[in-house]
Specification:
The protein is mainly α. It has 3 helices and no strands.
């Protein structure tokens, strides 16, 4: 004779388990979607890294120097420095502390001179 409680338990588990997995799963935007070999060039990898930075869910920048996949594409130190230099305007634009705080120059207001009548 089969155990009816076991069958009910398995049926409930089959219904509940997908819901639990869906609710507690990792969000799609935070999943590892790419690896360095997936890209044809370092520039393509860098574009993906820049799109998701600073989160880097794919782990394209393993050493946290803001350069994606430099080992995969055998970048020289000079090439790495060029990538970092090219990113500096991007980094500064998102940092409110990096924005200039100078006050605009005041424009003198002309004083009307009386005209003779």
């Amino acid at each position: 004779m089969r155990n009816p409680i076991g069958a009910v338990s398995r049926a409930l588990l089959a219904l509940i388990l997908p819901v639990v997995v869906a609710v507690t799963g990792v969000p799609v935007t935070a999943q590892d979607r790419f690896n360095c070999p997936d890209f044809a060039s370092q520039e393509e990898a860098q574009e993906e890294y820049d799109r998701t930075a600073p989160d880097d869910p794919s782990g394209l920048d393993r050493d946290d120097d803001t350069v994606a996949c430099e080992n995969q594409f055998n970048l020289t130190p000079e090439e790495e420095a060029a990538v970092i230099a090219a990113r500096e305007p991007l980094d500064g634009a998102s940092d409110p502390a990096a924005e200039p705080t100078s006050t605009p120059a005041s424009t003198p207001i002309p004083t009307p001179t009386p005209t003779p009548t």
